[in-house]
Amino acid sequence: MRTPAIAVTGLGMITPVGNDTESTWDGVCAAVSPARTVPELEGCAIDFACVVDGIDLDAAVGRRTAFRMGRYVKFAVLAAREAVADAGLDPESWDGSRVAVVVGTSSGGSAHLTDQALVLERRGPEATSPAGVLLTIPNMPAAEIAIEMRATGPSMAPCTACSSGVTALSVARDLLATGQCDVAVAGATESTVFPIAMTGFARSGAAAHADGDLSRLSRPFAADRAGLVMGEGAAVMVLERAADAEARGAEPRALLAGTGATTDAHHPTSPHPDGRIACAAVEAALRDAGWRADEVEHVNAHGTATVRNDAAEAALISRVYPHRPPVTAPKGVLGHCMGAAGAIEAGLTILTLQRGVVPPVANLDAPAPGFDIDCVTKVPLVRPVGRAVSHSFGFGGHNAVVALQRP
């Protein structure tokens, strides 16, 4: 059976540089990281991060329901509202039985779980929150979006670590292609800026340590890259069969042309040293899209700014795309938004397709010696882009790639 063309008709974001899609795009193109000291992390080995600022989340979500939502759930709800409005759809009038919600996360409500464990230990069970379970379980972003939007079709919460966002898009695409829904609200969300998570990343050796200007700590593909900086946020997209979008007069932002996924099956945190399994994920996405590798005009890289991951990805890019398409890596600005990163980066790739602008890699003068890749630096690159891919590689060896095309 031929897979129908899938259109992205709506996009919503909330990130450390913006509380909607437009401000996020502007912040990423400005290439200045908002990394700052976070008071709640005082005393931790890592006490800084890129955090969502300038918004009263409870007021934005609605205080009547905010009490039962973790921070990561609020991000997802706000991004989903923007995406659905952007798509020109109205949950009051659509057939909710034909609407799916697929929203991934990596750590879910771990922040609340650790807080409540301390409350239990210090003050006893009666002091714990009656909403404790709702604030913790990772399916709640999808559930809360479905509740608010009266979406009674399939609802799922993929978790493939830092690849969760692209996995969610792939699952949503399959639901549409197999006729299980007509509209899919899909993406990912994350908030891991809390003491136990930050301590864990510091202890693992993956995180950068404060050294001068915090805004320059995340340096993807640089020779002196020193580790990841934590971020948070969400991105949600509305997906429809392209024929259905055309029938209702919707203007697609992009076409989701293909996806690919593999698992390194090598190590819990380190990528496979020869990169062949990650390469297979890229090749699967290209095959699914029906593209040759030399037809790819832009790569939105995973680019964590860690020593091993950047080296493995740089080798992959030079091997798969020898024509050297322009590369960006948004984590230089946003930090690593973990489970939400793949969805956010897919959203930015869509904006590149629409606007013919590739954002620069923040804090990078030139790729490290031996990295034969064409990173955009200093200022955005203005160039028409018709076909692009976005890479996501997660702990556990999860590799997920999405191929996106200008309509």
Characterise the protein shown here.
- With 407 residues, this protein is α/β, with parallel strands linked by helices.
- It contains 13 helices and 15 strands.
- It has helices spanning 21-30, 57-61, 63-66, 71-86, 110-123, 140-149, 164-177, 195-204, 242-247, 276-289, 307-320, 331-334, 341-355, and strands at 6-14, 36-37, 48-49, 99-104, 155-156, 183-191, 232-241, 254-263, 298-300, 326-328, 357-358, 374-375, 381-382, 387-394, 398-405.
- An 11-stranded mixed β-sheet has the order 5-4-6-7-1-8-15-14-9-10-12, sandwiched between helices. A two-stranded antiparallel ribbon has the order 2-3.
- Strand 14 and strand 15 form a beta hairpin.
- The model has no long low-confidence stretch (mean pLDDT 95).
Set out the fold topology.
Elements: E1 6-14, H1 21-30, E2 36-37, E3 48-49, H2 57-61, H3 63-66, H4 71-86, E4 99-104, H5 110-123, H6 140-149, E5 155-156, H7 164-177, E6 183-191, H8 195-204, E7 232-241, H9 242-247, E8 254-263, H10 276-289, E9 298-300, H11 307-320, E10 326-328, H12 331-334, H13 341-355, E11 357-358, E12 374-375, E13 381-382, E14 387-394, E15 398-405
Parallel strand pairs: 4-5, 4-6, 9-10, 9-14, 10-12
Antiparallel strand pairs: 1-7, 1-8, 2-3, 6-7, 8-15, 11-13, 14-15
